[in-house]
Each structure stands twice: as structure tokens, then as C-alpha cells.
Amino acid sequence: MNGRRLVIGVTGGIAAYKTAGLVSRLVQAGAEVSVVMTEAATRLVGPKTFEALSGRPVRTDTWGPGAHPHIELAEAAELLCVAPATANLLAKAACGMADDLLSTLLLSFHGPILLAPAMNHHMWTKPAVKRNVEQLRADGFLLVDPEEGYLSCGAVGIGRMAPPEKIFQVIAATLEEEGNSP
Known about the structure:
Strand order of the largest sheet: 2-1-3-4-5
Distance between the termini: 9 Å
Largest sheet: 5 strands, parallel
Helix content: 40-55%
């Protein structure tokens, strides 16, 4: 991971706290990590947490610094990973909607895009979510499917975000497969 340039997107799922571990692991492995958070994500984990872990400012605003932040981020990174990817983000990505910095970045990013969904088990099994996941796979998005286990709502079922270490391994394998050696 030494010198690899990554963007980690964080959406408003409770699993966002796990993404701090992923960012820490990537940085410890030598990656340069930029974090983009949705407004909802900032209500669950503070941007300062990711700034401290990544050593970089966290981006949250389409109208923030830079003339075209989504283009600048897209051109500066080799891989984009969204963890957690909520049902809302999956729907936006499947339809090509772009109404915030992260969803706009998804449309402008030209490298591999990895999504790590996390949501309630009833949500994950809804036909609309299944259709969106099928469309995203057909469009070339890579998914690290959620796992079964205890969910934040107290239920047990499929919907838990994959562990940060598993996502880390998929990121490493994807970069190796893409032949994006620094």
C-alpha cells in the first residue's frame, strides 16, 4: 500500500465507526487516504476522527475548497471505496444521481470503485436494493457483501458491514489486479 492514493467514502450508516479502523489500517500500511463524508455520516462519526487518522482534511461539501472538488479527488486517487454504503448510496449510484460530493465523485471517478454495503437485514433483502446491487455489479462496481450477525437495531441477520480487515484485503487485491503498481 506504500504510496497508494485512495479515497474512502463514508455514508450515514452506524457502521461508519468501523471505517475509522479501515482508514487507520490503510494509513499504517503506507496509503495516502483522503476521506469524503456525507452529511449524515458526520452525525455518527466526527470528521476530526478521520482527519486525525488520515492526516488529511476531510471533505464533506461539494462547494468546498477547489474549483471542482469531485474532479480533483477523482484524478488524484487510484481507488475509491465507500464503507459503509447505505441503501441510499446504492440507489443513488445505481441511478447515476449526484446530489452531494460523494455521489458526484462516484460519477467522475475513473478507477475501481468498491462498495461495502451495511444496513438492516430487511432492507438488504428488499427487491429494490437487490435490483440496485445487480445494476451496480453490471456497471462494474465491486461489492464486498455484508455479513450475517448482530445488527445495531438488535436484530440478527445479513446486513453487517464486512470487517475492516476484509475490506482492506479486497482493496489490496483490487489494486494488485488492476496492475496499478506505484
